[in-house]
Write a structure and sequence with these properties.
Order of helices and strands: HEEEHEE
Oligomer: single chain
CATH topology: Trna Endonuclease, Chain: A, domain 1
Largest sheet: 5 strands, mixed
Strand order of the largest sheet: 1-2-3-4-5
Structural class: alpha+beta
Shape: globular
Protein name: UPF0102 protein A0O34_09360
GO molecular function, one term: nucleic acid binding
CATH architecture: 3-Layer(aba) Sandwich
Helix content: 25-40%
Number of helices: 2
Number of domains: 1
CATH class: Alpha Beta
Family: Belongs to the UPF0102 family.
Amino acid sequence: MANHNDLGKKAEDLAVEFLQKNSYKILIRNFRYQKAEIDIITEKGSLIVVVEVKARSTDAFNLPQEAVNKRKISLIVSATNHYLEEFNKDQEVRFDIISVLPDAKGKLVIEHIIDAFEAFDAN
């Protein structure tokens, strides 16, 4: 497996641990719908929280969360709508990003960006 795949998997595992420690209930990981994948779908209180995890080995070019562009958001929103229908969920949805970067000592650091983006009409 490529190093970036290893980092991505490790980042998702760290994100799950972080969310669980902060009272989020993990509903599903790596939910796929057509060309989209949602990294983590959680529940906190009455909210469904959709979490996109982005990791980079360096921030030299851009921050991990900057990779979540309009196309990616559109795919996430589409997959979220399908998830809500498939599992008969009628709850408010929030979209978060968890960014993972190594610090100067190489330790992976999590930044949780709450309400990082909103659903929009891609048409």
